[in-house]
Design goal:
The chain is α/β, with parallel strands linked by helices. The chain is built from eleven helices and 13 strands. It has two domains: 211 residues, Rossmann fold, CATH 3.40.50.720; 105 residues, Alpha-Beta Complex (UDP-galactose 4-epimerase, domain 1), CATH 3.90.25. Helix content is 41%, strand content 16%. The strands form four sheets. Strands 3-2-1-4-5-6-11 form a seven-stranded parallel sheet, sandwiched between helices. The protein has a two-stranded parallel sheet with strand order 7-10. 48% of the residues are buried. The protein binds uridine-5'-diphosphate-4-deoxy-4-fluoro-alpha-D-galactose (UFG).
Length: 340
């Protein structure tokens, strides 16, 4: 029996890559998105990669009757919830916008799952670990108080899911992503930030493409080997495959408890400067960059211990940072410079 997976936010960066991997693994995928933070570029790319059009529903997950109707129209075996706002700085300025959207949409998903019995996968973040005292972080590392409303919504949604699994017997998984970067090897789907990018890799690729004059490296006086921050950059296709493993584990009855949490990272710390140098080297480009003051709210270093996901999900990150940065540049060239 073919199982059906609903992907909320399925037209976005992570959602589109997950749609591709799930479909290629034999799942029926229903894509839902309100297109509030993207256009149809990635959905069209998904259709081109797959050679078919997964059902697409334009809807807002804050609309409880629309969510109920979706679950009535399709027999959903699992739902992966990506639909959320994600700009850390904006969440500090507009907390109510973030709390209303990110919490209400997930409550509606949980209510639908309670009634239908669908398994739930929540897209969480390494942000729940804050500035960790010990590295690498394991799933047992303490969750520290969030430094932004965005981060707080990740913690609260994890708690919503844990409590609903315990009370209603739901199956739930939270995947804590480290820093997802790159693009599909086809260059047909990738990251499409609106306006000035907040994140490092789209800022790098847009600078290389001439859309931004210069990259600012925020802080070179951190207590790290080269003074710049350390992160765990995870290839978007590797990350997407982790979702297939987690959905399969839930639907095949392999979970060890109703609610499970996994770090999704490489286990490899890379500094901002190392990432910039790797981008220049693999793509043969000199990047215009300068050192700038630290960015408020940045942690010095965070990287994953991914051994739980390696063992229990049978998943492992396999792509090198170089491969990923080459894919990111191929995507940027197609989108900005119209090079095929
Ligand atoms: N950076 C720069 N220049 C830029 C952009 C970023 O030097 O123009 C640096 C940052 O200071 C940081 C590193 O690049 O040291 C990575 O920054 P990103 O913005 O790409 O990623 P973050 O680690 O800040 O953010 C990620 C996710 C968020 C999540 C956050 C906290 O994108 O969703 O981790 O865990 F909330």
């Amino acid at each position: 029996m073919i199982k059906t997976v609903l992907v909320s936010g399925g037209a976005g960066f992570i959602g589109s890559h997950v749609t591709v991997e799930l479909s290629q693994a034999g799942y029926e995928v229903v894509v839902a998105d309100n297109m509030s933070n993207c256009d149809d570029t990635n959905y069209k790319g998904v259709c081109a990669i797959l050679g078919k059009e997964p059902p697409f529903i334009n809807m807002d997950f804050c609309d409880s009757s629309a969510v109920a109707k979706l679950f009535a129209d399709y027999k959903i075996d699992a739902v992966i919830h990506f639909a959320a706002f994600k700009a850390v700085g904006e969440s500090v300025a507009e907390p109510l916008k973030y709390y209303r959207n990110n919490l209400l949409s997930f409550l509606n998903v949980l209510e639908a799952a309670r009634q239908s019995g669908a398994a739930v996968l929540f897209s969480s973040s390494a942000t729940v670990y804050g500035e960790p005292e010990e590295l690498p972080v394991t799933e047992a590392s303490p969750r520290l108080p969030a430094t932004s409303p965005y981060g707080n919504t990740k913690q609260i949604c994890e708690d919503f899911l844990r409590d609903c699994c315990s009370a209603y017997g739901l199956r739930g998984t939270a995947l804590r992503y480290f820093n997802p970067i790159g693009a599909h090897p086809s260059a047909l789907i990738g990251e499409l930030p609106r306006g000035v990018p907040n994140n490092l890799v789209p800022y790098i690729t847009q600078t290389a493409a001439g859309k931004r004059e210069r990259l600012s490296i925020f802080g070179n006086d951190y207590p790290t080997p080269d003074g710049t921050c350390l992160r765990d950059y995870i290839d978007i296709t590797d990350l997407a495959k982790a979702h297939v493993c987690a959905v399969r584990r839930m639907l095949d009855g392999k979970m060890e408890s109703g609610y499970e949490v996994f770090n999704i990272g490489t286990g490899r710390p890379v500094s901002v400067l190392e990432l910039v140098n790797a981008f220049e080297k693999v793509n043969g480009i000199r990047l215009n960059y300068c050192f700038a003051p630290r960015r408020a709210g940045d942690v010095t270093a965070v990287w994953a211990d991914p051994s739980l996901a390696n063992e229990k999900l049978g998943w492992k990150a396999v792509r090198s940072v170089e491969e990923t940065l080459a894919a990111a540049w191929a995507w940027e060239k197609r989108i900005s410079l119209h090079e095929e």
